[in-house]
Structures are given as structure tokens and as C-alpha cells.
Amino acid sequence: MENRNSPKNGRTTRILLTACAAAFAGAVALPKAAYADDVTLPPMPAAVQVTNGDIPFLVGHAIGTQNYVCLPSGSGVAFVLFTPEATLSNDGDEQIITHFFSPNPFEPNSNPALSARGTIRATWQDSRDSSAVWAQAKAGDSATSVTDPDFVAQNSVAWLKLTAVGNGIGPMGGDRLADVTFVQRLSTHGGVAPATGCTSSADIGHLAFVPYTADYFFYRHPETQGHGK
Fold first, then answer.
1. Among candidate residues 93, 84, 121, 104, the one with its CA nearest the CA of residue 209
2. What total of structural domains would you count in the chain?
3. Are the beta carbons of 85 and 99 closer than 8 angstroms?
4. pLDDT tens-digit series, residues 78-126
């Protein structure tokens, strides 16, 4: 996967994509509703709003699990999220993106206990062109059923605004997610760590795969509208 931040690679990719689009226009039918420039956002708390003028261009409806492992925590134990696993589909129920944790190759690995080449981040990878975005939720960019009960359902994972910290072009030049600046996780249901199964040191190592659904909204700068289609 190429570094999106490389100007040379970006110019070359644009030229190749333009040529291919002209040559194959009408010959390839893209998945219906896989992307749209008129994405409608639901009402949401201020904490997860994108307010810098960036525009939502893509929405994916996720079905998957939030995966936890029981680990030592303070003087006791607690379930800790080790990865989500979800498939995002468009309005036509066609898979468009996969979601998981992976090392962000554009950030140095700051944890010496891990052998990964890059900081572990939430990751979304396009199912069609293999472009990707890595993002993190910054402090204050979340809403829970406790802080915002009018929006977030009980026993559901938080709504989040995640800021992109890395973007990658696919091996064949795919770039639908290569300009993403923010990702929102909204309309969540389920996914909260269970209240049982991790209560003593005997439970360390126990896994819990908790089903959840959510809508993910992807943003980019206005000047890049029309790219990555």
C-alpha cells in the first residue's frame, strides 16, 4: 500500500485513474449507492460533530462484533477491547468496507511490547480498491448513553468522531479512502463489554465477541470532492 502523502505518487495515480476512467466509462458498473456527495447526517451531539467544513461523502452500515479480552486492570481485572471486526455495506446491501484494528504505517510504534510496525489504530479498508484510512478518537470526541441519552442507546458503544492519522492508496492505485479526514461512528446498537466473564484472575485471557451495529460516515475536504470514485 502506497503512502497517500507522496506528491509524486498522488499525481501519477490521478493521471492513471483519469485515463482508465475515460477508457472504461460505461463498461464497469460500480456498486449502487457505494458513495454519494449528498450524504444525509442524522442528528448528533456536539461532541462528535465535524465543524471544520469537511464534507461527508460516504456512509457504510456496519454489522460485526466488538472483541474483548479479560486482562489485569489496577487491583483487579477488566475486559479490554482488542479489535472490532465489522463489514460495512451500502444501501443496496453490497459490501464496501471492512473495519478492524491494524498498525498505522505512518505513525512510529510507541509501544516496545508490540512488534507491529506502526501504532495500532482503528482501520477501514475499501473492499473494492484496497485504499485505507487509520484514525483515532481524541479526548472529548465521544458521546455515550450516560452523557447523551437522547442520542446513544442504552447498552451500546459510544458514538465517536475519529480523526484520520494515516491514509493509504491501494496496490493498483485505488484511492476512495485516501482523502478521508474524519470518520464518525453513529447510531450504534450493542457492542458493550459483558458484565460477566471477567471478575477474577482466573478469567484472565477469556474472550468476548459482542455483536453490534453502527453507521460510519466518512469525510474529506471540499476540494477533494469527486476524487476516489
1. 84
2. 1
3. yes
4. 999 999 999 999 999 999 999 999 999 999 877 666 656 789 999 999 9
